[in-house]
């Protein structure tokens, strides 16, 4: 009986070590090329008025490609707005940015210089941490307030999860969550 308890205890310890090793490897920063590909999906947008007017659905397309030691990230969002879902006003927003590594590991700066946010531009940076590539933008508004936008794109077993948040002085303005699947490398 004592031998059986020792074997069981040893198996539990070995299992815990294996699980701990697996979890710690999951927490390691993924290589940049793990994010490369063409991704498509949809998301739900919420804002202060969502309780009264409902959520809005958005079509999402993201392309992440290698660019030297950095990457190019392009995205398109298709919004449908208006009261009649059969006759909604369609708006398309697209942006593409080239990022290169900085002296700080895992942090990337746009190839095109960020413009001074106080002068009407944006400060932009990206980082890779764990399974997430994040792009942040900081703008100073005309009234002196600020807007911070954060785009988290996290790799999962099911594809790419998007968590976008826009924050101004008074709090969260909009949040979009979505799922995208890989269409091509």
List keywords for this structure.
10-stranded antiparallel beta barrel; 2 helices; 2 domains; 185 residues; single chain; Lipocalin; alpha+beta; globular
In a nutshell, what does this entry contain?
The chain is an alpha+beta fold. It has 2 domains: 1-29; 31-184, Beta Barrel (Lipocalin), CATH 2.40.128. It has helices at 2-27, 50-53; strands at 37-47, 56-67, 70-81, 89-101, 107-110, 122-129, 132-140, 146-156, 159-168, 171-184.
Structural class: alpha+beta
N- and C-termini, Cα separation: 56 Å
Order of helices and strands: HEHEEEEEEEEE
Number of E-state strands: 10
Level-1 CATH class name of the largest domain: Mainly Beta
Question: Which architecture name of the largest domain does CATH use?
Answer: Beta Barrel
Name the helicity range. Answer: 10-25%
- Count, helices: 2
Task: Note the beta-strand portion.
Answer: over 45%
Cα Rg: 21 Å
Please name the CATH topology of the largest domain: Lipocalin
Mean pLDDT: 83
Strand order of the largest sheet: 1-2-3-4-5-6-7-8-9-10
Description of the molecule:
With 185 residues, the chain is of the alpha+beta class. The protein folds into two domains: 1-29; 31-184, Lipocalin, CATH 2.40.128. The chain is 16% helix and 56% strand. The chain has two helices and ten strands, in the order H-E-H-E-E-E-E-E-E-E-E-E. A hairpin with a 5-residue loop joins strand 7 (132-140) and strand 8 (146-156). The chain is globular and about 50 Å long. Mean pLDDT is 83; it is low at 4-25.
